[in-house]
Amino acid sequence: MDGHLATRLPLADDQADFSLARLDGAFGEQKLPGRKLDRGMGEAVGRRTVFRPGDAEDFARVADRVAAGNTALVDHVSAFERAQLRNAIATGALLTSGRHLQHGDAEQPGRNMEVFTNCATAITSFAKFYLLLNGSGVGRAYDDELCAVDWGQAPTLLLHLSPEHPDFPRDRSGLHRFGVEMQLLPWGMGPEDFDGAAEAQVRAVLDAGVLTDLAQAPAGAVHHRIADSREGWAKAVEILEAMAFRRQADRTLVLDLSIIRRAGSPIAGMQGRPASGPISLLRGLMNIRRHVIEPARDDSGGSRLQPWEQALLVDHHLSVEVQVGGARRAARMATKSWRDPGVLGFVRSKSEGGLWTANHSVMVDRTFWSLLEGSGQGDLAVHARAVFDEVTRCAYVNGEPGFINGDLLEDHRTGTAWAKPVHEDGRDFASQRYQADAAADLLAELSRRASRARFPVTTNPCGEITLHVTGGYCVIADFAPALACPVGLGDFAPGQPTDEVAGLWDARVADSVRLGVRFLLRANRMDALYAEEVARTNRIGIGPTGLHEWAWVRFGLSFRDLLDEERAAPFWRMLEELSGIAKAEANAYAAELGTTRPVTVTTVKPAGTTSKLFGLTEGAHLPARRQYLRWVQFRGTRDAGAESGNWLEGTDPLLPEYEQRGYPVRTLRSFPGMSIVGFPTVSLIQRLGLGDALVTAPEASPAEQYQWLRLLERHWIGAEQGNQVSYTLKIYTDQTDLAAFRDIVLREQPLVRCCSILPSRPDNELGYEYLPEEEVSAARFAAIADGIHDEAAQEVVDWAHLQCASGACPI
Question: Which residue has the higher pLDDT, 760 or 451?
């Protein structure tokens, strides 16, 4: 068996029907056992983001509830398909996404789609805030032509918190905590060092920033009590943003935070994780008032904040509060057109402005690259070269901003993005749970602007999904072809399964793709804020993860083998046929449901959560390192704000638990109220016996990795109905200087839709407080592992096996 799928060849659109999409039934109808999570990190991720008490840490039970919830979204899903879907998830062959694994259950038909979407865009700050609160990653275009709000015209903003609220800082202890959370006190100042002067400083900020008596509000002020919900928090920002759009600087808006639950209260639907309380939102709104509204009104220095800069700052301050809540990731993408006069300021905004909450990219096109290749001296050519030079100068330091080839994105390429209608009644952002009313006129104005924008689409934070700038969703899912193997991955030599095993394996992979496509199209039927856009595009994104494990165990091919298309022909042929299967299935099932033909179908997402569950390489990425600590954020800090002291109230209970087991734990400074736990990690790929054939990301050249991306775009993404490949390519600055870096970008970046480039140096030179993955020496890794008193971790960190797999057996 060479991996060729002869049974399911894609037909032309007018021939596609349900008979083509019929499932092979490769997973059977009898319940299969759930796959065991990878020990250590996999189990930690499962406990934190997937398992509920009723799951009993059994992935089969997760599969039961996720399949039940998804198939309940439409009528007449057969018991046969339900059983197939359940088994595909239970075995890990169809991983869906972390959102579905976390939230999927029989109650799904009554929930909002936002909870199940990984990828979104927004064109206003309140919309972005609400989507972040729902856990979506959100992209936003900050092009001049798409920013219509002057925050300098916002109303006078007063913030009220009742002195009776449990979180109101009424005594010395409360004032100390308020000072810590508001970042008013020096790092590490504990209660014992909180003297009279410090207390007076905190009390002065409290008195000046918080209205304690509503009777003191001026006559005619607009009063709004913020509801204790995601919707309530977003509605407060909507009212403020709408008043700024209407230039109501002569009005006063009072936002009352008094009914927001106290910090540490459990959040329903988030595994009971602790709420951040009203102080978090208070801090965000105070920062907007101080760092955006007031400076936007001041033009005395001649450098007044421009609307795009104001929007970027507002989104940053709101995102900080979502992220430090500890229950949601607050992932963002910020893009700006290369043609904008202020783009150079945007380029420097992250490195010089401290705006760390978003990935920044510049949208470019064929005109941009052609101007760089020529020797023209016109204004646009000079501007293009200045943008390229500044982007690469900044990116060489910290990897941002990147370049996105906006004209290669699907909706831009086909022109469908400009066909989106303009609505005047706010329906662009309305669901059963949330309706934009105060800002309906703002949304309409922005829709009109987008209908004639040069770049009408942007991407989600990780870059793999194309979405309209005014707002849209894409539900996404991973399938893991290696985990579709019907026998143990060690039961045969790499690339040499029996014909019987290979036949069933390949059929399961194909069915995982079909089931995944149907799974996603059903999710598009949910109640959604962007229901109009979902119906218009029916966009989905399904992609593989654990590609390197599959290539090795199924075909006997290492990374460098895959770059030889002739040698790796069975792999690439099968991947291309799976792409055709995905699109044919999507078109057929959409027709069956009476919905639009999906604008996009294929993608490769980062697959972080799903891949970590089973120790797979993530999405298209090479293994990052051979052995490393993977740091994971948790909400919580100590009373001394440093590495000692008791954990404060509201701390995630997993933090002290992991610390007690011996895992490395550090409190963060740049992320207020957050700490990190380090998990010793050895990926599955290193346990499969590749030996010297294993290639990690630092060992692959940029040219090899760009070739890998081009092959994936050709054979999986495809020429039509494709999104992008999310990929971060590391370039080591001790081997590549700035001139060589620029040559690489100029030569390679125009040939792919998008690719993040992250220059890397020794960890201690990067300037970050921590890195998600910290490479450690073999000796340090062994010492850390020995200090962890956790049977699960000890079982995964089999040090002798690790060293033998790398070709360096211990004496």
Answer: 451
